[in-house]
């Protein structure tokens, strides 16, 4: 009986339009991005790319990197890569046990790593839609707002990097939802993060001195993590995917407002709507109001 129920839920999931939208449309979107890079290399022989600087040579002040979702997948790979390149890394996650295990594992591979772990408050709301928005956008918005004054006034150049990839979500976790709305919610959350990144870039450019704080968005492509374990697509390892994140973290101070994709410091244009200033400003004010409301309720 249990097997039959599981089989029926699987069939409903696979036959859902949203499943094929994720499996096919998102994959085609990634292929299109890679084709754009290829055509740019062939036609112009000089695709838009940005050089890296060395974290050890750029400043005498130790560079600190705060990474959210650092206990698995891209976050864990990026945390280890940054520690290996000389960064002091702060790992942020929702499970202290997994954070401790991650720190121990990194220390074994890199005994000289400078690591700190910070447990974020877990999301208590039960609705999955809110969980997706909180994980992909609201948490990043709140953390950036808290750190922004520190980044702007830091002694050396700072970088704020948002991962706005065209990924997907774990379908097996949401089989019980016949309507399956989560694909669109995921897309909206990543669009919000991207538009927010561009808006931070614009606001920083108006207030901070040039090159002091850079804001970048990165797309690591379809990475083989627990999130993307059910769908067929163009999958590569987390080690390959995090190279784009390192490109952003080690970008030159004057590089900002760029959407990085494809590795080797390459940049492309994101969707036209992501550059909509009116939408970004409305998103900013709405997010500030929502955050203030949530803090008031918490008090």
Structural notes for this entry:
- This protein is an alpha/beta fold and 299 residues long.
- 51% of the residues lie in helices and 12% in strands.
- It is built from eight helices and seven strands.
- The chain has helices at residues 2-14, 17-44, 73-84, 96-109, 128-152, 182-207, 238-249, 277-298, and strands at residues 64-68, 88-93, 114-119, 158-163, 213-219, 258-261, 267-268.
- A four-stranded mixed sheet has the order 4-5-6-7, sandwiched between helices. Strands 1-2-3 form a three-stranded parallel sheet, with helices on one face.
- The protein is globular, with a radius of gyration of 20 Å.
- The model is unreliable at 167-180 and 228-233 (pLDDT under 50).
Brief account:
With 299 residues, the protein is an alpha/beta fold.
SSE layout:
Elements: H1 2-14, H2 17-44, E1 64-68, H3 73-84, E2 88-93, H4 96-109, E3 114-119, H5 128-152, E4 158-163, H6 182-207, E5 213-219, H7 238-249, E6 258-261, E7 267-268, H8 277-298
Parallel strand pairs: 1-2, 2-3, 4-5, 5-6
Antiparallel strand pairs: 6-7
Helix pairs in contact: 3-7, 5-6, 6-8
Strand order of the largest sheet: 4-5-6-7
Based on secondary structure, the structural category is alpha/beta
Distance between the termini: 48 Å
Radius of gyration: 20 Å
Which key terms come to mind for this protein?
299 residues; alpha/beta; three-stranded parallel β-sheet; 8 helices; 51% helix; 12% strand
